[in-house]
Amino acid sequence: MRFTKTIASASVAAVLGVAGVSVAGAASSAGSPQPAAPAATAAATATATTKQTGLASVRRRRLLRRAIAVAAKTIGISSADLVKELRAGKTIAAVATEHGVQPQAVIDALKAAATAKIEAAKAAGKITAERATRLERRLDTLIPKLVNDWHPRRAAAA
What is d(CA 122, CA 37) in angstroms, rounded to the nearest whole number? Predict the structure, then answer.
């Protein structure tokens, strides 16, 4: 515990020291602007890219969870059971067929849920009408691909 506090204190002191040097440097060269160091700019760009990539990854996982919930409800099983089947190497269409549900019914349910979500975002002003149209057009290719071809084993290998 004591060692952890020491390391934490040293880290805080180092950060404050670097910040103090940065402020002092900025104050001394206030009259003559200097170009940013390439390494600092590259680091800032890399951080911004990482944050965007991380956010996109979170959004994809959230969308996938919602799609699995809708598909599971349509098939008549729990989301956990559907995920188990998917991890075993099956597709959503194969699981639906095993449970006596046509894959097209799952596709239709997913498309209806996605369209409702897009329309709600458009009505709330979160997306433009053009963006909503583009998203709805993509549903015709993405949802059948998700139902007929996708499962986690293939996604991890890609």
Answer: 42
To the question of pTM greater than 0.70 for the whole model, the response is: no
Report the alpha-carbon distance of residue 119 to residue 34 in Å, rounded: 49
Distance CA 71, CA 90 (A): 14
Domains of the chain, residue spans: 54-158
79 Cβ contact partners less than 8 Å away, ≥ 6 residues apart: 65, 68, 69, 72
Residue 80 to residue 102: CA distance in whole angstroms: 20
Average pLDDT, consecutive stretches of 10 residues, N- to C-terminus, the chain (158 residues): 49 48 45 47 48 78 92 96 91 95 96 95 94 94 91 58
- The rounded distance, in Å, linking the Cα atoms of 27 and 148 is 62
Write a three-state SS string for the chain.
Answer: CHHHHHHHHHHHHHHHHHHHHHHHHHHHCCCCCCCCCHHHHHHHHHHHHHHHHHHHHHHHHHHHHHHHHHHHHHHCCCHHHHHHHHHCCCCHHHHHHHCCCCHHHHHHHHHHHHHHHHHHHHHCCCCCHHHHHHHHHHHHHHHHHHHHHCCHHHHHHC
